[in-house]
Protein backbone atom coordinates (compact mmCIF):
# COMPACT_ATOMS: atom_id res chain seq x y z
CA UNK A 1 0.00 0.00 0.00
CA UNK A 2 1.35 3.32 -1.02
CA UNK A 3 0.52 6.46 0.97
CA UNK A 4 0.91 9.71 -0.79
CA UNK A 5 2.07 12.45 1.59
CA UNK A 6 1.73 15.94 0.37
CA UNK A 7 4.66 18.11 1.33
CA UNK A 8 4.10 21.73 2.03
CA UNK A 9 6.45 24.13 0.49
CA UNK A 10 7.61 25.94 3.62
CA UNK A 11 9.63 28.51 1.74
CA UNK A 12 6.57 29.73 -0.15
CA UNK A 13 4.47 29.81 3.02
CA UNK A 14 7.11 31.80 4.90
CA UNK A 15 7.54 34.18 2.00
CA UNK A 16 3.77 34.75 1.91
CA UNK A 17 3.64 35.48 5.64
CA UNK A 18 6.53 37.91 5.39
CA UNK A 19 4.93 39.68 2.45
CA UNK A 20 1.68 39.92 4.35
CA UNK A 21 3.48 41.40 7.39
CA UNK A 22 5.29 43.94 5.23
CA UNK A 23 1.99 44.87 3.57
CA UNK A 24 0.37 45.33 6.96
CA UNK A 25 3.26 47.48 8.16
CA UNK A 26 3.05 49.60 5.02
CA UNK A 27 -0.68 49.98 5.48
CA UNK A 28 -0.23 51.00 9.10
CA UNK A 29 2.50 53.46 8.12
CA UNK A 30 0.23 54.96 5.46
CA UNK A 31 -2.61 55.32 7.97
CA UNK A 32 -0.29 57.02 10.46
CA UNK A 33 0.85 59.43 7.74
CA UNK A 34 -2.77 60.26 6.89
CA UNK A 35 -3.55 60.81 10.58
CA UNK A 36 -0.58 63.17 10.95
CA UNK A 37 -1.67 65.12 7.87
CA UNK A 38 -5.21 65.44 9.25
CA UNK A 39 -3.92 66.73 12.59
CA UNK A 40 -1.66 69.25 10.83
CA UNK A 41 -4.54 70.48 8.66
CA UNK A 42 -6.80 70.80 11.66
CA UNK A 43 -4.26 72.75 13.71
CA UNK A 44 -3.45 75.06 10.80
CA UNK A 45 -7.18 75.72 10.30
CA UNK A 46 -7.50 76.63 13.98
CA UNK A 47 -4.66 79.11 13.64
CA UNK A 48 -6.39 80.66 10.63
CA UNK A 49 -9.68 81.12 12.48
CA UNK A 50 -8.51 82.17 15.92
CA UNK A 51 -9.59 85.75 15.43
CA UNK A 52 -8.66 88.62 17.69
CA UNK A 53 -7.28 87.87 21.13
CA UNK A 54 -8.74 89.13 24.38
CA UNK A 55 -5.72 91.44 24.63
CA UNK A 56 -6.53 92.96 21.24
CA UNK A 57 -10.16 93.51 22.23
CA UNK A 58 -9.12 95.16 25.53
CA UNK A 59 -6.70 97.42 23.64
CA UNK A 60 -9.57 98.52 21.40
CA UNK A 61 -11.75 99.07 24.47
CA UNK A 62 -8.99 101.13 26.14
CA UNK A 63 -8.78 103.29 23.01
CA UNK A 64 -12.33 104.57 23.61
CA UNK A 65 -12.00 107.62 25.88
CA UNK A 66 -15.72 107.66 26.76
CA UNK A 67 -15.50 104.31 28.56
CA UNK A 68 -14.30 104.47 32.17
CA UNK A 69 -11.94 101.56 32.95
CA UNK A 70 -13.53 101.32 36.41
CA UNK A 71 -17.11 101.56 35.11
CA UNK A 72 -19.77 98.91 34.67
CA UNK A 73 -19.69 98.88 30.87
CA UNK A 74 -15.92 98.29 30.88
CA UNK A 75 -16.23 95.41 33.34
CA UNK A 76 -19.15 94.00 31.36
CA UNK A 77 -17.07 94.17 28.16
CA UNK A 78 -14.20 92.25 29.77
CA UNK A 79 -16.59 89.38 30.56
CA UNK A 80 -18.21 89.65 27.12
CA UNK A 81 -14.82 89.27 25.43
CA UNK A 82 -14.54 85.75 26.81
CA UNK A 83 -16.98 84.82 24.03
CA UNK A 84 -14.91 84.51 20.85
CA UNK A 85 -17.69 85.53 18.46
CA UNK A 86 -18.62 88.63 20.45
CA UNK A 87 -14.96 89.60 20.84
CA UNK A 88 -14.47 89.23 17.10
CA UNK A 89 -17.54 91.33 16.35
CA UNK A 90 -16.43 94.09 18.73
CA UNK A 91 -12.99 94.31 17.10
CA UNK A 92 -14.57 94.28 13.63
CA UNK A 93 -16.69 97.34 14.39
CA UNK A 94 -14.88 100.40 13.00
CA UNK A 95 -16.44 103.36 14.79
CA UNK A 96 -16.04 104.01 18.51
CA UNK A 97 -19.63 105.24 18.79
CA UNK A 98 -20.90 102.01 17.24
CA UNK A 99 -18.75 99.96 19.64
CA UNK A 100 -20.22 101.82 22.62
CA UNK A 101 -23.78 101.38 21.32
CA UNK A 102 -23.17 97.69 20.68
CA UNK A 103 -21.75 97.15 24.18
CA UNK A 104 -24.71 98.95 25.72
CA UNK A 105 -27.11 96.88 23.65
CA UNK A 106 -25.39 93.62 24.66
CA UNK A 107 -25.55 94.69 28.30
CA UNK A 108 -29.27 95.47 27.99
CA UNK A 109 -29.97 92.14 26.26
CA UNK A 110 -28.14 90.23 28.98
CA UNK A 111 -29.94 92.12 31.76
CA UNK A 112 -33.26 91.42 30.04
CA UNK A 113 -32.47 87.70 29.88
CA UNK A 114 -31.50 87.68 33.55
CA UNK A 115 -34.71 89.52 34.51
CA UNK A 116 -36.84 87.09 32.49
CA UNK A 117 -35.09 84.13 34.11
CA UNK A 118 -35.59 85.63 37.57
CA UNK A 119 -39.28 86.28 36.83
CA UNK A 120 -39.79 82.69 35.65
CA UNK A 121 -38.25 81.36 38.86
CA UNK A 122 -40.70 83.25 41.06
Please provide a written account of the structure:
- By secondary structure, the protein is mostly helical.
- The chain has 2 domains: 7-50; 54-121.
- 75% of the residues lie in helices and 0% in strands.
- Helix 2 (54-62) crosses helix 4.
- The chain is elongated, with a radius of gyration of 32 Å.
- The model has no long low-confidence stretch (mean pLDDT 83).
Which descriptors apply to this entry?
122 residues; L10-interacting MYB domain-containing protein; mainly alpha; 5 helices
Mean pLDDT: 83
Gross morphology is: elongated
Number of helices: 5
> Percent helix among the residues?
over 70%
Class computed from helices, strands and strand pairing = mainly alpha
Low-confidence stretches: none
Organism: Arachis hypogaea
Protein name: L10-interacting MYB domain-containing protein
Amino acid sequence: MYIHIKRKNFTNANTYKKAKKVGGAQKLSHQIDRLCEAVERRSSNKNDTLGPSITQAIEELDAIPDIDPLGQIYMFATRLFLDKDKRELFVALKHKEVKIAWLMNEKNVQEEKENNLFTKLF
